[in-house]
Amino acid sequence: xxxxxxxxxxxxxxxxxxxxxxxxxxxxxxxxxxxxxxxxxxxxxxxxxxxxxxxxxxxxxxxxxxxxxxxxxxxxxxxxxxxxxxxxxxxxxxxxxxxxxxxxxxxxxxxxxxxxxxxxxxxxxxxxxxxxxxxxxxxxxxxxxxxxxxxxxxxxxxxxxxxxxxxxxxxxxxxxxxxxxxxxxxxxxxxxxxxxxxxxxxxxxxxxxxxxxxxxxxxxxxxxxxxxxxxxxxxxxxxxxxxxxxxxxxxxxx
Amino acid sequence: xxxxxxxxxxxxxxxxxxxxxxxxxxxxxxxxxxxxxxxxxxxxxxxxxxxxxxxxxxxxxxxxxxxxxxxxxxxxxxxxxxxxxxxxxxxxxxxxxxxxxxxxxxxxxxxxxxxxxxxxxxxxxxxxxxxxxxxxxxxxxxxxxxxxxxxxxxxxxxxxxxxxxxxxxxxxxxxxxxxxxxxxxxxxxxxxxxxxxxxxxxxxxxxxxxxxxxxxxxxxxxxxxxxxxxxxxxxxxxxxxxxxxxxxxxxxxxxxxxxxxxxxxxxxxxxxxxxxxxxxxxxxxxxxxxxxxxxxxxxxxxxxxxxxxxxxxxxxxxxxxxxxxxxxxx
Lengths: 254, 330
What we know:
The structure holds two protein chains of two kinds. By secondary structure, chain A is an all-alpha fold. Chain A has a two-stranded antiparallel sheet with strand order 1-2. Helix content of chain A is 57%, strand content 2%. Chain A has one domain: Transmembrane di-heme cytochromes, Chain C (Fumarate Reductase Cytochrome B subunit, Up-down Bundle), CATH 1.20.950. Chain B is α+β, with helices and mostly antiparallel strands. In chain B, strands 8-1-10-9 form a four-stranded mixed beta sheet. In chain B, strands 2-3 form a two-stranded antiparallel sheet. In chain B, a hairpin with a 5-residue loop joins strand 4 and strand 5 (155-157). At the A-B interface, helix 2, helix 4 and helix 5 of A face helix 3, helix 4 and helix 9 of B.
């Protein structure tokens, strides 16, 4: 993916190819895991889902488990890749910061016409909080799923207490994951957020939108740390390496 | 009967072992030698010894099992809620007396096979119950882990958390578990929308095993046709008996191996062809491991964290090399 904004285009690069691949690998496999996980409940035949063209397999518990495992390989692999890659590259822009909870409340109120939105960095405070929440849910799903898979393969007589913990944790995190997905989709319905859809599809975002809504990020991209709102923030971090975090692509501003 | 925990063998076990050895011509193996509460065990059903308790109203093992498990199934609610949208209810509460097949009230029954072997007619009686598989698909597939294999080898359904979805029955190569509608936890949640009762089957008298006692079917058998002991010993004994009678073993390889080994002088293909099969009446045919298809991809799941880790490290190395090269050009 070119790091240069297309000639004469009003665009800033928000996500690199790595982030796009990670996001969509986790999103698509996550959705498939929700579906195949649901079909591990005895509902497909009972509710005639097997009669829907293309979903006949949904009543086959062993095949749906096979699919669940297959999508888990992508889901778990992409999640671990994400942690290792961004952890070692020092990408921190999406991690929650002190004051995010309070600031999120201000942002939510502004959606309903009460007060002004504060200037944002690359991510909105609620995006950073949602990231932490989803990361926790995914970690829980992966840990409990791995215990269950290990039992299924190698330890059928695993201690019952551990089996029950893993099973019910997996079921609970499954419900939370579905709710998180619904909330993620609901965020798109909020008009000021919609330009970000383009970014997660193409990697690019409108520059005028970014300058208006994410001035702290734009200032960081330009190598400036002089935005007035910066002074109110927690101690300024080192400028992240060029890549995926706060400062992604100074050239994109040209 | 209590076991001598010091030696893992009860005196009665030793004596009945001597009796068994006398019957089979074997020496050395006690009939029941499993150390109480620890380690996997196996059971052996010697079809050359079982006579189906002909002449009795009910086979001794079946009667003992029914007596032991009387009252396990609670009284179903009346009326039983009709599960939406199909409305299929399985109610055995008015047919509790059925003993010629598996039901929620009957976890052991005797199949009868009349076969011709070497020009002679022969009648074989086959006690049938859960095989207690080594890696049971029923436990793998249960979404609530209501079905669990214990270290002892017993595969037990926890009736308190079973919703009666019958997945276990569907994936069991012998379709052993049976459903009773109108009982269980589903009644307290969404009785018409989710669940349809509770699944029931033989638990190999797990409560007795934990006390160091033997399953009642084994204790009750007047012909000592059934044995329980450490799994390796039971397997060795099954092989020895099969060799001695020029016979066959069923349950060693089926579904990847089970805790129940049948030994028969008649090939199981002949027995399978001769028995009455159908709902509640399991076959004696081939039973490849049910979860074999999912094993390779499950192993890939276990490897996926390492794959992600290595790919992440490689990507970091690649990114750093690239930024280093870009720096060189500046």
